[in-house]
Write a structure and sequence with these properties.
By secondary structure, the chain is of the alpha+beta class. It contains three helices and six strands; from the N terminus they run αββααββββ. It has helices at about 1-25, 35-45, 75-80, and strands at about 30, 30-35, 85-95, 95-105, 110-120, 130-140. The strands form two sheets. A four-stranded antiparallel beta sheet has the order 3-4-5-6, with helices on both faces. Strands 1-2 form a two-stranded antiparallel sheet. A hairpin with a 2-residue loop joins strand 3 and strand 4 (about 95-105).
Amino acid sequence: MGVALLLPGDSGKQDRPQAVHESQSPDVLASGDLRTRVHELLATSSRTTPFQGKHSEHSSDAPMRDFGATAPSCVQQGIGRSDQILASQQDGYKGVPSYLVVLPHPADTKLVDAYVVSSACVEATPPVPGEVLLQRTLPRT
């Protein structure tokens, strides 16, 4: 009887650590950890004035910011939301060129929704919505 009680417990323990490990693994973009990148983009956008906008003196990989932050229309169609974009940036995810797009969370102002969308749609003929590769809800700060 002791063996019968240990087997179900043992198999449950084997399944559970793997599931926990997978859910805790960081989502890594070409530019770094997703959570870190989202927080950096939001921090940068909160310091940006309307006059700096997308044309700051930073390199071409600088994020597009609040006042007019945008992403290609096919990327926005892939996300399926019309909210004002808080920040977006070209990036990469698992070797796929993509856009990181940060939107406000619809139900909680303390959260944001981060989407990583393949940029292959930009060159697609006929036009197609971008493929969402990753979506996460994260704390705003």
